[in-house]
Amino acid sequence: MLDSLKKRERVVGVKQTKKAIEQDKIEAVIIAEDADQRVVGQVRQLCEEKRIQIHTAESMKQLGKAAGIEVNAAVVGLLKS
């Protein structure tokens, strides 16, 4: 999943991912396992309510690098094609 992340249309970060989920634009979400659960909990809950696939990455550092950004990322949302 992380290998193809740079090639996909995506949103990075909790706020942008939540907004895209609410607008029904997200196909799947990747959440870093070491992210603070208070931060990613709302995204996880929205995904469960809307039956959006949830994948995990080992770390925020790994997820940020896979998304092609210079900083750590707690959440990345993959946009629908």
Tell me the structural class: alpha+beta
Shape: globular
Strands side by side in the biggest sheet = 1-4-2-3
Largest sheet: 4 strands, mixed
Topology, number of strands:
4
Mean pLDDT score, rounded? 95
- Poorly predicted runs are none
List keywords for this structure.
3 helices, 81 residues, four-stranded mixed beta sheet, 60s Ribosomal Protein L30, Chain: A, 25% strand, alpha+beta, single chain, 4 strands
Notes on the structure:
- Helix content is 36%, strand content 25%.
- The protein is of the alpha+beta class and 81 residues long.
- Helix 1 packs parallel to helix 2.
- Strands 1-4-2-3 form a four-stranded mixed β-sheet.
- Helix 2 links the parallel strand 2 (26-32) and strand 3 (53-57).
- It has three helices and four strands.
- The chain has a single domain, classed as Ribosomal protein L30/S12 (60s Ribosomal Protein L30, Chain: A).
- The model has no long low-confidence stretch (mean pLDDT 95).
